[in-house]
Amino acid sequence: MQDFINGTALLFGDPFGIAIFIGGLLGGLVFGAIPGLNALTLAAVLLPFTAWIPAEYAIMLYGVIYVSGVYGGAITAILFNIPGSVENAPTAFDGYPMTRNGEASKAIGYAVTCSAIGGTCSAILMMVATEPVADFAISTFGPIEITALIFFGLTVVAGVGSKSLAKGWISLGLGLMLGAIGGDPVAATPRFTFGSLYLAGGIGFVPLILGLFAVSEVFIQGRRLVRGSYTTPKLSVSYPSVAEFWSLKWAIVRSTIIGWFSGILPGVGATLAAFLSYNEAVRWSKHPERFGHGEPEGVVAPETANNAATGAAMIPLLALGLPGGALTAMMIGVFNLHDMEVGPLIMIEAPELVWILFASMFWASVAILLLGMVESKCIVHLLRIPFTMLAPGILIFSMIGAYALRGNIFDVYTMFLAGIAGYFLRRSDYSVPAIVMGVILGQIGENSMAQALTMLDYSFIGFFSEPISAVFCGAGLITIAWGIGRRAYKFIRA
Amino acid sequence: MRPGPDWVKVEALAWSVFIGGAFALSLDFDEPLRHYPPGAALWPRIILFGMAVATVVLLVSRFLPQTARLEREQGPEYLDEAPNDLAGVGWRTTAVFVLPMLWTYAMHQLGFLLVTPVFLIAFTWLMGVRSKRTLLLFSFGFYALLVLLFYKLIYTPLPMGAGMFHTINGELLALIQ
After folding, report:
1. Which of A47, A76, A371, B88 lies deepest, with the highest CB count within 10 Å?
2. Is some CB atom of chain A closer than 8 A to the CB atom of B135?
3. How many structural domains compose chain A?
4. What mean pLDDT is reported for chain A?
5. Quick check: pTM over 0.90?
6. Which residue in B25, B33, B90 is closest to A186 by CB distance?
7. Which residues contact A486 (CB under 8 A, 6 or more apart)?
């Protein structure tokens, strides 16, 4: 506790520290909300400049950007169906339908409060359990367990966003196939590339997500506008009540745990945390059919989990020197710029630096809550802009988001093609969430599966020989059987 | 509005072509790899197998009488219009899809700075804004905001056009910055 107080005093005891804290907070919020220009872009731009500021403030800045950037993308996902970053994509699944149902303010309220809860809990856990948890997680979770975990996650995805189980599975398959385009993870053998250099690198997540969500939405609403059947979303300014939050307490606890453990695992991080947490929310819900149509739990689960992953990602970084993702890898760069090395000795050699980081991430989560409460009352008024003017704006911001990441015009074509495909798929009740989850989980899953199969002597039965993996695989098979059984029961009764 | 079984046949046929085509393409990379004997085709083929099973289920379930009864209870599977309902597809609806693609192509050739104001005016008009004053005020106001944000504040690289348009855009950019 004394260390935390010292870290807080160091953070707020110097006007320069306060300025960096506020700058990082606002920068992360703004960059997180602009598609294609996520917190990672800001972190990359700032990296060279960190050499001129004290090490403890430089590291603190990155911690704050990480926390606020993960939250920032939720706002555009909820209001306009444009996820600011990949980890905010599942927030759009139910956040945007809530906006269409006139509950935008509530959805933002859920997102901000749960981001703050997830981030705060994660920061507290990070302070008390860095070393033992890092040892356990990293020694227990290898490629076999991660493959099984992803298989378990995929089995739920098919049930999300479509009334037909078969169409849900087809959507998931389509997403997995899109994720398989490009080099394979073992020898980079080109697959489905038709000799194109662009396809050899695989289809980018960002253009695909922008196309399937934002552009297809403009097409759907644009067509309704042209045909005179467009309805303006209702506008209400109301924050969720304590009773509403209380009814979601288990979802928040579950998502915090999922987010935290995902954050610890190197290479897994906030994106998988958000998707897995959404899947679990569907799996545990008494009304899974409501997901994809404006279910508050669909906003609460990913937003709690992706912020819970931020604090946890510091554990392998500080305890073992293992970065969990691109932003934590940049933090190693910041340490190096100041002639420091991360690893177990950092807690002994530079405790003030570690504690200012912990304190800043904790206070950034608290600040998000305060800022977000104001934001949820103000920012919903953006919905007053007529769709006639919003539509070209959404298309231009999406185009910039798709192009700016790699400076490749084909990403923009991909986005518009994904938008047209998304339009027809959504109209025919195929599940866009399942496609997106298929792309993201598939790429991580194939990589882990290849490593796991090599370790298991190319036997799929081997997944049942390791206890943790066997539990996940068994749970996945039960989920498939449960989904089919439930559907068959409905058929028999009909 | 429930689409007839014929539409489901079209969907099933489309997925069958997709699955068959992808399987045929996977023959190009189905050799065992030196450090990974299952090869690069294993993963896509597992997925294609799953998709094939789901397509058969989709087709079969559509013809069961229970599906129609379930839809009556739970509401239609499709959105407000059936996917094969092409009535009222006029040139404006088509333009909603085509204009963004044309804009992308023109932007690649002529640059973001030159083409975007035209796109803004055209798409806003297409969405139903008819007042010339509103069209011009909104389009140029929004364009100015974009230029300020992306060129002056965060220096985002955007398409510069090809040939002489690259030079023109470069000159314009130098003026702005």
Report:
1. A76
2. no
3. 1
4. 82
5. no
6. B33
7. none
pLDDT at site B80: 45
Nearest Cβ partner of A424 from B73, B83, B116?
Answer: B83
Sort out which chain A residues have CB atoms less than 8 A from B73's CB and list them: 494
Q: Lowest mean pLDDT: which of A45-54, A106-115, B109-118?
A: A45-54
Q: Provide the residue-wise pLDDT of chain B in tens; the chain has 177 residues.
A: 445 557 788 899 999 999 999 999 999 998 888 888 888 999 999 999 999 999 999 888 877 776 666 666 555 444 444 444 445 557 888 888 899 999 999 999 999 999 999 999 999 998 888 889 999 999 999 999 989 888 887 778 889 988 899 999 888 888 887
Written as one string, the DSSP assignment of A413-461 is HHHHHHHHHHHHHHHTT--HHHHHHHHHHHHHHHHHHHHHHHHTTT-GG
Residue B37 DSSP SS3? coil
**B64 contacts in A (CB within 8 Å)?**
491
Q: How confident is the model at residue A37 (pLDDT cuts 50, 70, 90)?
A: low
What backbone torsions phi and psi does residue A311 show, to the nearest 5 degrees? -65, -40
CA distance A448 to chain B (A): 12
- Smallest CA–CA distance, residue A36 to chain B, in Å, is 10
What letters, b where the CB count within 10 A reaches 16 and e where it falls short, cover B63-81?
eeeebeebbeeeeebbeeb
Question: If contacts are CB pairs under 8 Å, which of residues 15-74 in chain A contact chain B?
Answer: 37
Say whether residue A371 is in contact with chain B using an 8 A CB cutoff: no
Q: Are A432 and A89 in contact (CB under 8 A)?
A: no
Record: contact A184-B43, CB cut-off 8 A? yes
Q: Does B13 touch chain A (CB under 8 A)?
A: no
Q: What is the ipTM of this complex?
A: 0.87
CB A172 within 8 A of CB A156: no
- CA–CA min distance B43, chain A (Å): 7
Q: Give the number of residues written for chain A.
A: 494
**Using CA atoms in the order A478, A480, A486, A492, what is the torsion angle rounded to 10 degrees?**
-110
pLDDT: is B1 or A119 the higher one?
A119
Judged by CB atoms closer than 8 Å, whether chains meet at B54 and A166 is answered as yes
Say if the Cβ atoms of B124 and A177 lie within 8 Å: no
Cα–Cα distance between B1 and A437 in angstroms, integer? 29
Residues of chain A in contact with residue B127, where contact means CB-CB under 8 angstroms, are 222, 225-226, 387-389, 391-392
Nearest Cα of chain A lies from the Cα of B164 at a distance, in angstroms, of 18
